[in-house]
Amino acid sequence: MKLAVIGTGYVGLVSGVCFSDIGNDVTCVDKMSQKIEMLQQGEVPIYEPELKELIKKNAEAGRLRFTTDLTSAVGNADIVILAVGTPSMPSGEANLSYIMEAAKEVALAMNGHKIIMTKSTVPVGTNEKIGSLIRGNTAYPVSVASVPEFLREGSAVRDTMNPDRIVIGSDCEDARQALAELHKTLTDNILFTDVRSAEMIKYASNAFLATKISFINEIANICEKVGADVTQVAVGMGHDNRIGSSFLKAGIGYGGSCFPKDTEALIQIAGHVDYEFKLLKSVVEVNRDQRFNVIRKLESILDTLNGKTIAIWGLAFKPETDDVRDAPAFEIITSLLQRGASVKAYDPIATSNFMQKLNSPRIEYCDSAEEAALRADALCVLTEWKEFQKISPATIQSWLKSPNLIDGRNMYKEEEVANTGLIYYSVGRPNMNKGVREKTPQLLF
Ligand code: UDX
């Protein structure tokens, strides 16, 4: 099939590349000429495992190309994939100006019937507006479908090639058939829905996963007070098939380009129809507060942060990505600076992205984990990179000035920490807290 993908962000680029890899003819379009030139030279603007190799392979095979020329890309395509960003506005609502602008440009470039497949995450009802906008700007027939994207950063290629399900939301039979054909080599599990339900499935899925994370984080906070271990609790819960074991890792809360944006957007969507989504509001609030546990734990060990040097390992919102959007590290580092601390930070690949957003004479960006930890008063692990997991707590202790380790991602096991002199705090595992003045919690009942 001949595809034009509008937008070469995470979703557009990965989808375009993967569709070319399964034999389709794909043209990826973006307004940013610098980005297109980079891609034409085989350079990838984001860090994503396997992506660079796939771009090279499919570009060389002549199935994949990059251009700023939307008109010719749309003209040559049977299916046009809309994958432009829908960032949050200050109110939390999704900003639809980019996708509407793209839809209008697509309409003006049409030279025959096209199927429009929207992959961007958009509020319920948006695809109907896209359909009307296109029909108002072209005489050619158009079939619109919402096909939400569920890929995760860091495993985007794998997720796209092996999706749990494909949701095709459309009222047009030709679009359903063509899009089922397009996805059939990826999975047998194709669900057909109406357009609005497909749009809602994306928001509801992300909101539910965010809810699981905030839920387990609150359980972790209670575990710390009652002397239970949240990792054991999560395993025990996860063995119930109705609950499932994924997204029950307690930590410093979720970040990234999707969960924070989509939870806020769903709260707004509900608000527009006079419904207060109380549960989701709490999920967001719990998530916002969870990252400050790192500060509270540091203060309980060091008394004051003023004048202290704190090492930070991990700036990306999760491992295997250089994405720092809504990364907990921002608020944690900002709070440390506000409290008079200096920061030595290291991330295997996200440092330059992070530096562009947060700079201060009191932040030193380091070239290695060791350099960041050397002679610091405490080390906080904010992203569970494999590189960090390989460094033993005993080595960490030898680098630090004071042996304080706050493990915000429960990266270390009990036996690894047991024989060190580290003062160790993790999340929801109070029995592993070592060297802290706190006593085993007294139950009040
Ligand atoms: C997410 C959704 O998983 C994906 O389906 C959607 O398309 C986009 O948003 P992504 O943001 O790439 O993907 O990462 P994900 O692996 O889902 O993690 C999101 C955040 O939740 C990260 O900050 C991660 O550290 C955190 N998380 C995840 C937890 O704190 N605990 C968990 O158990 C799982």
Describe the structure.
Its EC number is 1.1.1.22. GO terms for molecular function: oxidoreductase activity. It comes from Paenibacillus mendelii. Pathway: Nucleotide-sugar biosynthesis; UDP-alpha-D-glucuronate biosynthesis; UDP-alpha-D-glucuronate from UDP-alpha-D-glucose: step 1/1. The chain is globular. The protein has helices spanning about 10-20, 35-40, 50-60, 70-75, 95-110, 125-135, 155-160, 175-185, 195-225, 230-240, 260-270, 280-290, 295-300, 330-340, 350-355, 370-375, 385-390, 395-400, 415-420; strands spanning about 1-5, 25-30, 65, 80, 115-120, 140-145, 165-170, 190-195, 310-315, 340-345, 365, 380, 405, 425. It is an alpha/beta fold and about 450 residues long. The strands form three sheets. It has a six-stranded parallel β-sheet, with helices on both faces. Strands 11-10-9-12-13-14 form a six-stranded parallel β-sheet, sandwiched between helices. Strands 7-8 form a two-stranded parallel ribbon. It is about 45% helix and about 15% strand. The protein contains 19 helices and 14 strands. Bound molecules: uridine-5'-diphosphate-xylopyranose. Uridine-5'-diphosphate-xylopyranose binds near residues 153, 209, 248, 251 and 256. Uridine-5'-diphosphate-xylopyranose binds next to α9.
Secondary structure layout plus pairing:
Blueprint: E1 2-6, H1 10-21, E2 25-29, H2 33-40, H3 51-60, E3 64-67, H4 70-76, E4 79-82, H5 97-109, E5 114-118, H6 126-137, E6 142-146, H7 156-161, E7 166-169, H8 173-183, E8 190-193, H9 195-226, H10 230-238, H11 259-272, H12 278-290, H13 293-302, E9 309-313, H14 328-338, E10 342-346, H15 351-355, E11 363-365, H16 369-373, E12 378-381, H17 386-389, H18 393-399, E13 404-407, H19 414-418, E14 423-425
Helix pairs in contact: 1-3, 4-5, 5-6, 9-11, 9-12
The chain binds uridine-5'-diphosphate-xylopyranose.
